Amino acid sequence: MHKISKQKACKIFTLARSLYYRKPKKSDDYRIKMLLLKLARKYIRWGFGKMYAAIKNSGYTWNHKRIRRVYCEMRLNLRKKPKKRLPNRSKQILLQPLNANYCWSIDFMSDALVSGQKLRIFNVIDDFNREGLGILVGTSMPSKKITDYLDCIAEHRSYPEIIRCDNGPELISKDFLKWAQKHRTIIQHIEPGKPSQNAFIERFNRTYREEVLDINLFFTVQEAQTISDNWLIDYNNYRPHESLKNLAPIEFAIRKATGSLATAPFMGALRSPALDSNA
């Protein structure tokens, strides 16, 4: 092993001797850490961009690379939710079907019991007359539970040709798509972020929210299910619907079938029990 002088070694590597003898300064990041920690505790949802801007606006002169390094060392990075990859969805024109049982719309809602336990609610309507075909209340809604419930509805009405829905995980699962293929039902997924393409069920959800969920306290799942079932009977049989010539969904379907829809005005053939009790 041959030894050479430091001067010659620096010359071979074209390195200045002053740089060889220079000792790196120990960076003091304590103040940066304290500032970042203070901001992180006060503003939980702030990311690096907002924290860096706040530090710069306070008059500190540290560059963004140094602050970023300390920020990452402290593991303050916010985890980004990965974007769900979906097939391209074509825009669906929302038209009212001419016949019942041609197109169903389905959607989920959320609420909670008095105890704080989360509730999930699955709604199904017929687009032809906005009839509520079913409301299923539970604490979880896997795709198997959804398909079983749709099978129960189809026992009395047969399977629809089309089901319109959003891109929820239960509604893009392999089990749900296999179920639809088995029963020769077309699944029309709306475009992501376009609830207006499923406006019939969205309007139903609003009415259900205002008339049931917002005015009732639920202590059990069964209580929520019973109240929802009773409300659905009233909704289908007695509640006038503006887009159905102020007819209730069942009355609209009856008049459409008998051909008396265009001539006979709504005279309250189906009277609400509440109205009868006040008569």
Q: How do the helices and strands line up, and which of them pair or pack?
A:
Blueprint: H1 6-12, H2 17-21, H3 30-42, H4 48-57, H5 64-73, E1 103-112, E2 118-126, E3 131-138, H6 143-157, E4 162-165, H7 174-182, E5 186-189, H8 199-213, H9 221-237, H10 249-258, H11 273-278
Parallel strand pairs: 1-4, 4-5
Antiparallel strand pairs: 1-2, 2-3
Can you put this structure into words, describing what you see?
Residues 263-279 have low confidence and may be disordered. A 5-stranded mixed β-sheet has the order 3-2-1-4-5, with helices on both faces. With 279 residues, the protein is an alpha/beta fold. It is elongated and about 105 Å long. It has helices at residues 6-12, 17-21, 30-42, 48-57, 64-73, 143-157, 174-182, 199-213, 221-237, 249-258, 273-278, and strands at residues 103-112, 118-126, 131-138, 162-165, 186-189. It has 11 helices and 5 strands, in the order H-H-H-H-H-E-E-E-H-E-H-E-H-H-H-H. Among the domains are: 29-78; 103-237, Ribonuclease H-like superfamily/Ribonuclease H (Nucleotidyltransferase, domain 5). It starts with 5 loop residues before the first helix and ends with a helix.
